[in-house]
Every structure is written in structure tokens, then in C-alpha cells.
Write a structure and sequence with these properties.
- This protein is an all-alpha fold.
- It has one domain.
- The chain is about 60% helix and about 0% strand.
């Protein structure tokens, strides 16, 4: 997503989504809904919900 290849992210999104839900109990399936072409919207929603910066989210996603 952010600084990652979108195709790589899309391919492993279900796994990452599960890990994110474990890390952040406030996240729902709707918060983590992947839609082609709407990755920036997804990141923006996660920023708001989690109170994280894009860089922080990028690091979290990279570490998953």
C-alpha cells in the first residue's frame, strides 16, 4: 500500500487483515475492506481510527 507494491499487498491482504484485527481490537472487517483503487481511502480511514501517521501504518504493515 503506502510504500509497498499494491499487488504484493493485495495478495496477502487477508493474512495482514487478520493480524491487524488481533493487534487493534477496534478494527472491524468494514474498516479493513480492500477495494481496488481505494487504497488511499483505506489508509486514511485506518489513520483516523487508530490515530497513526501514514509512516507509522507503513511500518506496521511492513512488519506483519
Amino acid at each position: 500500500m503506502i510504500q509497498m507494491n499494491v499487488e504484493d499487498m493485495k495478495g496477502s491482504w487477508n493474512e495482514k487483515k487478520g493480524k491487524l484485527k488481533q493487534m487493534f481490537a477496534v478494527l472491524t472487517d468494514n474498516d479493513l475492506l480492500w477495494e481496488d483503487g481505494k487504497q488511499d481511502e483505506l489508509i486514511g480511514n485506518l489513520q483516523i481510527k487508530l490515530g497513526k501517521t501514514k509512516e507509522e501504518l507503513s511500518n506496521i504493515l511492513s512488519d506483519l
